[in-house]
Specification:
A: 114 residues, mainly beta, 4-stranded antiparallel sheet, 11 strands, 0% helix, globular, B: 112 residues, 6-stranded mixed sheet
Chain lengths: 114, 112
C-alpha cells in the first residue's frame, strides 16, 4: 500500500536554529499538507499546498515557516529560528485529486527544541 | 467556530467486549467526517470516511454512524482486540477547504 514517508523520525535542535523536515508524498497525489501535534494536544492544520503554491494556511503558519516542493517528489517544511514551543510531532499528508479520498498521513517527525 | 468534540476522553475495556465512541461537531458547511486510529508516536490511519448523504460505514470490526442533522457521529468497535489500544480521532472537513479539523480523541485501552 502506498505510504507517505517522513524523515527524520526524530530531530533535536537548539533554539534559534533552522530545521527542515522532509516528506515524500504518495506519487500520484496532488495535494500536500503539514500538520503538527504538540504533546498531549490535538492535531492542528498548518498548511496545504497545491499546484506549487500554498492554497491555505492557518494562523500558526507565520513567517517563521515555509514550504517547498523542490524536485517534484519531496515536500519540505522549513522552520526558521526555532523556539521551545515549536517542539511537537509534525505530520505530512497527501491526498488525491479531490482532496476527499486518499488523505494519507506519514508517521511524523518528532521535533525537540532545546 | 469550527470545533470537534469527543467523548469519553478515555476508555478501558476488556478484550472481546464492544465499545462506542462519540463525536459532536459544529463544522459548517459540512463536507465529510472521518475516523482515524492513532497509535502513540505514529501518524493517524484512516478507518472510515462519510459524506453528508451517508449515515453508516463499516470497515471490518469498525462501524461509524453519522447523523448530519444533529451533527453527531459514533464509532462502534466490535469484539475488541489488544491491538485496538490506541487513540481514536474524529476528524471533520468543511465544504470549502481541504484542511481537516481534528477532535481531541478518545484514548482506548483494551486489557486481556
Amino acid at each position: 500500500e502506498p505510504e507517505v514517508t517522513q524523515t527524520p523520525s526524530h530531530q533535536v535542535t537548539q533554539m534559534g536554529q533552522e530545521v527542515i523536515l522532509r516528506c515524500v508524498p504518495i506519487s500520484n497525489h496532488l495535494y500536500f499538507y503539514w500538520y503538527r501535534q504538540i504533546l498531549g494536544q490535538k492535531v492542528e492544520f498548518l498548511v496545504s499546498f497545491y499546484n506549487n503554491e500554498i492554497s491555505e494556511k492557518s494562523e500558526i503558519f507565520d513567517d517563521q515557516f515555509s514550504v517547498e516542493r523542490p524536485d517534484g517528489s519531496n515536500f519540505t517544511l522549513k522552520i526558521r529560528s526555532t523556539k521551545l514551543e515549536d517542539s511537537a510531532m509534525y505530520f505530512c499528508a497527501s491526498s488525491g485529486l479531490s482532496g476527499l479520498y486518499g488523505y494519507t498521513f506519514g508517521s511524523g517527525t518528532r521535533l525537540t527544541v532545546v | 467556530k469550527n470545533q470537534v468534540e469527543q467523548s469519553p476522553q478515555s476508555l478501558i475495556i476488556l478484550e472481546g467486549k464492544n465499545c462506542t465512541l462519540q463525536c459532536n461537531y459544529t463544522v459548517s458547511p459540512f463536507s465529510n467526517l472521518r475516523w482515524y486510529k492513532q497509535d502513540t508516536g505514529r501518524g493517524p490511519v484512516s478507518l472510515t470516511i462519510m459524506t453528508f448523504s451517508e449515515n453508516t460505514k463499516s470497515n471490518g470490526r469498525y462501524t461509524a454512524t453519522l447523523d448530519a442533522d444533529t451533527k453527531q457521529s459514533s464509532l462502534h468497535i466490535t469484539a475488541s482486540q489488544l491491538s485496538d489500544s490506541a487513540s481514536y480521532i474524529c476528524v471533520v472537513s468543511a465544504d470549502n477547504t481541504d484542511k481537516l479539523i481534528f477532535g481531541t480523541g478518545t484514548r482506548l485501552q483494551v486489557f486481556p
